[in-house]
Specification:
The protein has about 400 residues and is an alpha+beta fold. The protein folds into 2 domains: about 190 residues, no CATH class; about 200 residues, no CATH class. The protein has 15 helices and 14 strands. A 6-stranded mixed beta barrel has the order 3-4-9-6-8-7. A two-stranded antiparallel sheet has the order 2-10. A hairpin with a 2-residue loop joins strand 3 and strand 4.
């Protein structure tokens, strides 16, 4: 191994007799550098895009949400609420009411979900992070609502317009509640005043209207102990698995407990699938690029076959001679990979710091530095480089040595 390593290092840094082989080696090194840098940059770009796409979850979604498996409501009497609050790690317990509603304003109509929230809901989400226009968050009036930006745009709805109220209409609950002979008696209506407009992302902006919990319960004829779901805020040191077990023990009926990731599982699956697809594509590009490494190793073997014959006559085995070019190819790809990684890191750092590329006016393309991307890039180039070096070094055999002319 010592002799093979020494010769491999000499071959790696010394020029060959034929200029064409030197050019091939340089091109193989450059391709490895570019391929590794590209892989790291793309992975960092997707990490940034993933963080950007899911950033809303940090200030809009609860740490845990409890919802019923069967039916649309879950019971939350005062005793159960107190029991939830007494669980170690639980800071805030907020029952919420959510239902699809028909909206009407100034001759325009739309469909959205009303979300009734209690007074301390501003500790679950961060209103200051989502409010575009507002006199304040929901206060003590049941007629106040905070509307998504998409809904506001569709209805041409501003804030504090006392000249025309927003009508929120829902069917009355219960079997046979809709009376075909008197439809007005089949629906409940709330005349609401928009006091704020929020913006999170396009989907949520077109989906939700926030209202007070008491107003939503009155509109849907729910009791004070009924909720559509229960949302919790946990302390930073809370053990989620333990909290989940204690929550499940408090409910006689089956419930579903979801965290931020599970509440947005479809989005995370889509982003992860796209990330995997791009990784496989760039890995394929690296595989094709490393064929140049195989070719350069074979060219080196053919150029050095007389030297190899001499080494063989001096007692070197075929395995030792193969190891020379295996080490040489591995060192070349690892050196190219590390240099490519440094270049990729420089590009990512420059984009994060100086915002060189913009996807829209005032919005730089999101990049994120993640150690897992470093590990993936290094592991990929290492495995492919070692495999390419192994394939190239197998060109050495007894037949090749016998054909060498001294």
């Amino acid at each position: 191994m010592g002799l093979s390593s020494y010769i491999a290092k000499r071959y790696l840094i010394s020029k060959n007799g034929k200029n064409a082989i030197n050019i091939i080696n340089i091109l193989s090194f450059i391709i490895t550098v570019v391929g590794t840098a590209s892989l790291f940059i793309v992975l960092s770009g997707f990490s940034g895009l993933k963080d950007f796409s899911t950033e809303f979850s940090n200030y809009f979604d609860p740490d845990l949400q409890i919802s019923p498996v069967n039916g649309k409501t879950v019971g939350i009497p005062l005793s159960r609420k107190r029991a939830l609050e007494n669980i170690t790690g639980v800071l805030i317990v907020c029952p919420i009411v959510e239902e699809k509603a028909f909206l009407s304003y100034d001759g325009k109509n739309s469909i959205a979900y009303i979300k009734g929230v209690p007074d301390d809901y501003d500790q679950i989400i961060k209103p200051d992070s989502i409010l575009l226009y507002s006199s304040n968050w929901l206060t003590d009036s049941d007629t106040q609502v905070v509307v998504g930006a998409g809904i506001s745009l569709e209805l041409s709805l501003g804030i504090n317009d006392y000249g025309d109220y927003l009508q929120i209409t829902v069917p009355k609950p219960g079997t046979n509640a809709i009376n075909a002979l008197n439809l007005n008696s089949s629906f409940s209506t709330l005349n609401a005043l928009s006091t704020g407009i929020f913006s999170v992302n396009e989907t949520l902006d077109n989906k939700y209207i926030f209202t007070r919990l008491s107003a939503a319960r009155a509109l849907l004829n729910y009791s004070d102990t009924t909720a559509s779901a229960i949302e919790l805020k946990l302390s930073t040191d809370a053990n989620e698995a333990t909290v989940r077990k204690q929550i499940a023990a408090l409910f006689n009926e089956p419930v579903v407990i979801k965290n931020k990731l599970q509440l947005n599982d479809a989005l995370y699956k889509m982003l992860n699938s796209e990330n995997l697809a791009v990784y496989l594509i760039f890995t394929l590009v690296l595989v094709l690029a490393l064929f140049n490494v195989v070719g350069s190793i074979i060219m080196m073997i053919l150029d050095k076959k007389r030297n190899l014959k001499t080494l063989s006559d001096l007692g070197a085995t075929v395995t030792q001679l193969r190891m020379v070019f295996f080490i040489q190819g591995s060192l070349m790809t690892l050196a190219g990979g590390l240099l490519g990684l440094l270049i990729g890191f420089a590009v990512v750092y420059a984009q994060i710091t100086y915002k060189l590329i913009y996807i829209a006016p005032g919005m730089a393309y999101p990049f994120a530095f993640a150690w897992e991307n470093v590990a993936i890039s290094v592991l990929t180039i290492t495995v492919l480089g070692v495999l390419a070096s192994y394939i190239g070094s197998r060109r050495i055999n007894n037949r090749l040595l016998d054909q060498a002319k001294l």
